[in-house]
Amino acid sequence: MKRKIDWIGNIEVFDPILSATESRVLESFGCSVIKINEQGRRRVVKPMLSFMPHCEAFLYENLLEVNWEKHFLTNMVILGNRFSEYKKHASVAKDSMLSEFFQGISWN
């Protein structure tokens, strides 16, 4: 996709279960494989799509927390699970940022 669409910048990939072979394949396609597990705490300094299917709620929370300023949030798109699914479990983590976030959302 990057070869066909010239406005796509660097593609950085992280998955804690990537094998060495998978990492080499991604790199052969021009992707940068992130070696350090940032626990979702990637600062969004330029437009970024975060593809986060089936991630634990704390990863969304960490990503939002480290970018919880307008100039960072406006550069971020998250493609992942529905936050309403996490709302069901928010009572377990009452002090979490996502718990506060859920309180401000209309789910209708």
How would you portray this structure in words?
The protein has 108 residues and is α/β, with parallel strands linked by helices. The protein has five helices and four strands. The protein has helices spanning 20-28, 57-66, 70-73, 83-87, 97-103; strands at 12-13, 32-33, 48-52, 76-80. It is globular, with a radius of gyration of 16 Å. The chain starts with 11 loop residues before the first strand and ends in a 5-residue tail after the last helix.
Features:
two-stranded parallel ribbon; globular; alpha/beta; 108 residues
Question: How is the topology of this model organized?
Answer:
Elements: E1 12-13, H1 20-28, E2 32-33, E3 48-52, H2 57-66, H3 70-73, E4 76-80, H4 83-87, H5 97-103
Parallel strand pairs: 1-2, 3-4
| Secondary-structure element pattern, one letter each | EHEEHHEHH
Largest β sheet strand count, sense and barrel closure? 2 strands, parallel
3D shape: globular
Structural class: alpha/beta
Beta-strand level of the residues, as a percent range?
A: 5-15%
Distance between the termini: 36 Å
Helix content: 25-40%
**Order of strands side by side in the largest beta sheet?**
1-2
Please give the number of β-strands: 4
- What radius of gyration results from the CA coordinates? 16 Å
Instruction: Average the pLDDT over all residues and give the rounded result.
Output: 82
Number of helices: 5
Oligomeric state of this protein: single chain
The unreliable regions are none
Short description, anyone?
The protein has helices spanning 20-28, 57-66, 70-73, 83-87, 97-103; strands at residues 12-13, 32-33, 48-52, 76-80. By secondary structure, the chain is of the alpha/beta class. The model has no long low-confidence stretch (mean pLDDT 82).
